[in-house]
Give the backbone structure.
Amino acid sequence: FDMDGLLLDSEKVVKRSWDYAGKELGYENFGDHIYNTVGFNLKRRTEYFKTNVDLDFPMDRFAQMTREYYYKIADKEGIAVKKGAPELLNAAKSHGCMIGLATSSRQIHAEQSLKRAGLYDYFDGKVFGYTVKPSPEIYLKACKSIGIEPEDAVALEDAPSGAISAHAAGMRVIVVPDLVQPPEEVKQFLWKQAEDLERVIEMIWG
């Protein structure tokens, strides 16, 4: 499982935090950049901003501001769990599946977010954002963390970069789109596509 945008309805809050921080730093409608960077970790997003926004983009300041604003929203409004997430995780457990996490988010953010949502204890293995999607590395490590060969595993993703990562690792891929629909070159290799995680239960177990 990916996390942001798949299990948690967090990408919309990230966009709000980017709009806020961008405006404070003199960049209008900065949240729109999320559509090009869904699934990126901090390193890859930094490279994107320096290439596409400003070579001297103040990433450290931006990251601090967005984190503070994100958690302000999270504390006040909460971060919703995506439809069908607990039910799918329960179904996987009941069928004896090992469950791994492959998220580009930092470990501290991912752990706090999953614990708040009551989803943390479902996972038998976890890999966090020091590896970069669309490289297959993160999914290869996630499979290894639960003792499963990639060809015997299914990856669930919302973002095209994550889908490419999982496919390159040799996994079957199910995409449940959030902010971004998969482009045609991604659709060609998908195992399945679903409108929500509840539908995934039917797709896998009937």
In short: Residues 98 and 133 are 22 Å apart (CA to CA). The beta strands are 100-102, 125-127, 154-157, 172-175, 192-193. The first helix runs from residue 11 to 24. The longest strand covers residues 154-157.
